[in-house]
Amino acid sequence: MRNVAIIGTGHTKFGVRTDVNLQELAWEAIKQALEEANLDQKDIQYFVVGNVGSWSAEELPAVVVGEYSDLTPKGTMRVEAACSTGSAAIRDAYLAIKSGEADIALVVGVEQMHQAPNPQVVELIGRAGGYFWEFENFGLTFPGYYALHASAYMAKYGAKEEDLGKIAIKSHHYGARNPYAQFQKEITMDEYLKSKPVAYPLKLLDSSPITDGAAAVVLASEEVAKKITDSPVWIVSQGVASGTANLSKRTDFTHIEAAYLAAQQAYSKAGINFEGAWRFFDVAEVHDCFTIAEIMAYEDLGFAKRGEGYLLAREEQTYIGGKIPVNVDGGLKAKGHPIGATGISMAVSITRQLLYRAPKGTQVDVKHGMGISHNVGGTGHYAYVTIFSTRRPS
Amino acid sequence: MTINDVREKLQQQISQLILSLDQVVQMYGMPIIQDKNGNPLWIDVREMTLRYQIPIKKVQKFFEGLKEGKILATKCNKCGTIYFPPQDDCPKCKISGLEWVEMPDEGELVAYTVINVKPPSFSHYQDYIVGIARMKNGINVTAWVNSKEVKVGMKVKLRITKREPENYLIYELVPA
Ligand SMILES: [Zn+2]
Predict the structure, then answer these.
(1) Do A114 and A17 form a contact (C-beta atoms < 8 A)?
(2) Which of A194, A389, A185, A378 is nearest to A283 (CA)?
(3) pLDDT digit string (tens) for A74-101?
(4) Interface membership of A273 toward B (CB under 8 Å)
(5) Which residue, of A45, A104, A343, B147, has the greatest Cβ tally within 10 A?
(6) Is the dihedral of CA B61, B64, B68, B73 positive or negative?
(7) Which of the residues of A are catalytic?
């Protein structure tokens, strides 16, 4: 199997993007990624579009994006893996190149959630679990899914409201320094504690926003990548797992089993020990659609022992200069969470970090040349963990 | 509020929106408005109201059970797996036509939340508590928790209730 590298990245401003339609938004990211890779559409052999949709009008987004971006008639597909759609889209192109089916492929994630009114978006996301037994009769919302985990976690390990608040404050701290972020302002603990309840124990400031945005990467095989760039970022490995649609079928609500399994796969392929895994990475992007998700991510990735993730937040060990910098682009919480673009946005952030191209005030020290993304779809309905490196995998 | 009042209120809101869209078309000649950022938006004139029809034949017994005052799960006689939500196929043993068994009514709450920001289709309810309880047989149930006080670890009972204002049978968790 061949090595696969990221050779170009693109990222739009996240937020309310009613100044463009879906395909125009995707093109912003595609154009940037093509320019970075110094390639034209004719060089792209295959492209994948990550989009969950239903809130936006176009029913066949891959086709519309391909047409608008002059990528037709190259082969394409639309990929859905809930909030981990972007990582799933990367996986498809990654495997195409790894297997020798393509040499250069483009991946774009795009979501325009503001095409539908906010209440309808709440309705649509709420349906995104085990529909009949959870939404139809019991009206679980998306924050509600994670709130169930938060209540179980807090009861078992004694984490406090303020520990969740620490995550939100960190995200906003870095979001304020990221020109692509939806929220570019810091928040205080007081503001956090006073913010409006959404699904107890989660508040508005525990939650990622409804967002529009796009992100893109160009992937290439080793042979091609070496000709095009002297600074490829390699995809070392990826782990992928799934969970039950019905939350009630889970045995544990204090962690995300699918994410843990995906991490173990990714680590084992990369030769990394789960215990102390954080030592290998300069930067991590974890799925913090809600603050509790980031705390569980610390544990599911082996950055902290079970039940101790919140201590990492409390001790501020995930800021730049700490044990391991996490979500220093603002995370989903402050950068925004355009569902289909999120996983690709994570890959873009890590690539730019490893190449010392992060925005001022968010650049980490690159010592190992390695980064990791943890992208959870739904509440562990899907999970993707991807490891990136500036060093060519052996 | 009866369910018809709820429906009428929703329909009125929708009619109001369509009327104001008609006015926009009259004024500008096209269904274009400006959002709060000053961006022009074309408002879709092809509205779609959709309710799905979900086949329940294979688990019809569950709904018959509710009418008889029983909350049923299915059980595979070959491997012993209990399914709740019920399903008539055991994918482990690749057999169908499972046995129907009653769920125990005693359990313990393992997680809960209070839904404050509700989907529009739930907006006619007060803020509700959704909980997951581990029942005596080790199987979890997700349902509304009908209780003033709630905490993880509390003992609960599973029972059948009428969902108001719609007036249909459903199950809920109450303090034991
Ligand atoms: Zn069986």
Answers:
(1) yes
(2) A389
(3) 999 999 999 999 999 999 999 999 999 9
(4) no
(5) A343
(6) positive
(7) 83, 337
Distance CA B120, CA B123 (A): 5
ipTM: 0.94
Show the tokens assigned to A175. 């979001």
pLDDT band of residue B17 (cuts 50, 70, 90) is confident
CA distance B131 to chain A (A): 8
Residues (pLDDT < 70) of chain A are none
* Total residues belonging to chain B: 176
The pLDDT assigned to B48 comes to 84
Whole-number pLDDT of residue B10:
84
Four-residue CA torsion sign, A256, A257, A261, A262: negative
B175 SS3 class: strand
Contact present, A330 and A11 (Cβ < 8 Å): no
Q: Which two tokens stand for residue B89?
A: 């196929």
Inter-chain CB proximity B120 and A122 less than 8 Å: yes
Q: Longest Cα pair distance anywhere in chain A, in angstroms?
A: 57
Local structure of A83: helix, strand or coil: strand
Task: Fill in the amino acid letter for B97.
Answer: G
Q: In whole angstroms, what is the distance from residue A27 CA to residue A59 CA? A: 18
Whole-number Å distance between alpha carbons of A286 and A331: 7
Pairing of strands A233-242, A212-221: unpaired
> 3-state SS of chain B: helix, strand, coil percent to 5?
25, 35, 45
pLDDT in tens, B82-128: 999 999 999 999 999 999 999 999 999 999 999 999 999 999 999 99
User: Taking an 8 Å Cβ-Cβ cutoff, which residues of chain B contact chain A?
Assistant: 35, 37, 39, 41, 44, 54, 84-85, 110-123, 125, 128, 130, 132, 140-144, 151-153, 163, 170
Burial class (CB in 10 A: 0-12, 13-18, 19+), A59: exposed
**Residues of A with CB below 8 A from B149's CB?**
none
Q: Which of B106, B171, B157, B176 is nearest to B136 (CA)?
A: B106
B3: CB partners within 8 A, 6+ apart = B165, B166, B167
